Amino acid sequence: MTEPRSVLVTGGNRGIGRAIAEAFLAQGDKVAVTMRSGDAPDGAFGVACELTDPASVDAAFAAVEEHQGPVEVLVANAGITRDTLLLRMSEEDWSEVVETNLTGSYRLVKRAAKGMLRLRRGRIVLVSSVVGLLGSPGQVNYAASKAGLVGMARSVARELGSRSITANVVAPGYVETDMTAALPEEQKSAYQAQIPLQRFAAADEVAAAVTWLASDGAGYVTGAVIPVDGGLGMGH
């Protein structure tokens, strides 16, 4: 059994983030989750964090460091959508999504990197989306924010690689969460028809890719984009 590590998962109270947090907990790691509402998974340390506020991000890291030591594994998962067609998309629809999903991730990675550089090791996993690679009508803002994470991770991988810090991206497709459960049946069927595996992912299938990237076995994987999308985005 390897030593338990200090793990931070943003948006770890529901959906994919919760599954990721639970997967690290099952491995015996010390897990902190940020959330805006709801409860932390059993055994996780819950901390409030507003990604659009640099001071809030700094305070969250300080609380986590005090509770379980410097963050060795960062999973930037929290994100929002404001879906609407381009010509109806307001300045706020655009800036809120980019500020939370992309700029928020920049703040997390920058703050985590300080501790990782001192430790001379670390794992950064950014949760993107197949939409960031494939595009999606009504999601110009979301797709742009999620595509931006790929450039961020690859630049960070080049910058921090000499200190044994890896930076990778997981790009989920459609996942069974509260969000997809609310879709009309016809829409679900239409989406599934486009997916070679003909089904949505379980959240723990995304979590499995994240925990693998943070494992010893993935020590030589950095700057990669791992799709967990049932084959939907092949070739991207």
From TrEMBL:
A Gene Ontology molecular function term of the record: oxidoreductase activity, acting on the CH-OH group of donors, NAD or NADP as acceptor
Any Gene Ontology biological process: fatty acid elongation
PROSITE patterns according to UniProt: ADH_SHORT
Keywords from the UniProt entry: Oxidoreductase
Keyword Oxidoreductase: yes
All residue ranges annotated as the Ketoreductase domain in the record: 5-178
Keyword Manganese: no
Pfam families for the chain: adh_short_C2 (PF13561)
Family: Belongs to the short-chain dehydrogenases/reductases (SDR) family.
Protein name: Beta-ketoacyl-ACP reductase
Species for this entry: Marmoricola endophyticus
